[in-house]
Amino acid sequence: MQGHTIDLDTGGTTIRKDYPILKSFLAGSFSGTFSTILFQPLDLVKTRLQSRVNAHYATPKSGMLGTVAHIVRKDNVFGLWRGMTPSITRVIPGVGLYFSSLHWLKHTFGLEELTALQAISLGITARSMSGALLIPITVVKTRFESDVYKYNSISEALKLIYKQEGMKGLSSGLVPTLLRDAPYSGLYLMFYTQLKKMAVSTEKTVDKSSIPVHFSCGILAGIMASIVTQPADVIKTKMQLYPNEFNGIYHATLFIYKKYGILGYFKGIVPRMLRRTLMTAMAWTVYEQVTRLIGLK
Q1: How many domains does the chain have?
Q2: Quick check: is 134 in a domain?
Q3: Tens digit of pLDDT for each residue in 14-56?
Q4: Domain assignment present for 95
Q5: Domain that includes residue 261, residue range
Q6: Does residue 80 fall inside a structural domain?
Q7: pLDDT at 190
Q8: In this structure, what CATH number is given to the domain that contains residue 213?
Q9: What is the average pLDDT across 67-94?
Q10: Which of 53, 55, 49, 58 lies closest to 267 in space, CA to CA?
Q11: Spacing of C-alpha 158 from chain mean position
Q12: Where in the cell is the protein located (predicted)?
């Protein structure tokens, strides 16, 4: 069977080493799923903080801890994992596509040790490719996590959105999503790769493939990338939750500034920074270890 070898002891099949893109996809999907399940509550809280506005755009009444307490009182502790199904549905192909695209781009252009410019370019390109393909699931995920919509399943959500809003609804927030995710991935990869180089060059005894190096560099990279891309995340959330209220990015951006001031662009930054930083650091750490175990590195 092309692409597989038969294990004579178990009768199972194993992926051959000449399929690095598939192995990269599987490693990325595994790492993304693991980190998403772990940190889903932080994403839920972030979405609630950014979306708790009624038809008259009332100001949200509580912060991060108040939001957590409200969710637990209303839906018990498992309510913190609301939206898990669309999150996983998006993450398995999304993170897999991102890592496999990144692997493909690196080897297509013969890039091994990435410079800062190469890292940011590859990160942006790989994330744009996966983000554009999965925007309908991103819309569903955002609405599942909010208190604005009540869907029973992903398929029901997709059907209702398409029926009521058409393709515009299914692709709402595409531009701000890419403006948030593509720069985040580019900046993250740049900070991550350069920080690893600095760690090794500063302390010669440090093993750049070790888990502590991966995770600590991932944490620092996530913090820096999250701060830069937070405004785009707020705009994206508003446009996906209230697609009929805004004519475009400019309108949404202006509304947020008029209603909340400059701080409005950083609403929900604490849970998002915690989640994105921890999730991405965990995903990269797991990915690096898995790819090493399966012989991709």
Answers
A1: 1
A2: yes
A3: 444 568 888 899 999 999 999 889 889 988 888 888 876 543 4
A4: yes
A5: 20-294
A6: yes
A7: 96
A8: 1.50.40.10
A9: 89
A10: 49
A11: 20
A12: Membrane; Mitochondrion inner membrane
